Amino acid sequence: PFKGPVDLKSPKIEFSYLEFYGTENNHNLEKPYNIFFGLNIGEGQRQLITKQSIKKRKFIGNTTMDPELAFFMANLGKVDHTSLVLDPFVGTGSLLLAAAEFKGHVFGGDIDFLQLHARTRSSRAGEKKRKTDESMISNFEQYDLTSQYAKDQFYLPLGCFGL
Q: Which residues contact 117 (CB under 8 A, 6 or more apart)?
């Protein structure tokens, strides 16, 4: 048994209890298939996916990466304040935004000069031209991440790849 006072407002140790009722939504079971009880070692950050939703983002393109996948990749890379993240296929910068959210210092390049400088057609339905404030830096400004962004992005011509 545990000894000492119990602090329910700011506990030092948290446990979790989970019941698994299967993957079929249409079956109401009286008892769960499995019960899990264990030490809580971390919390999720799903609010970041909503925060960086593509629907709310200023600058998007045809191939803009979904924020959930970008955060997954940044998390797998264990990005933190000591990380320098280079995305050689930056596009509209989704991966860099996720890495910057984890305090990584980010920069990138792309083979598509027009996309890199927000000079392509708008990818939003019903819009033919981009707004003047649409750019990769506007996304970093939107999420207050400009301190993590190396402003000198670079263009990678085809010759760099021996093509």
A: 135
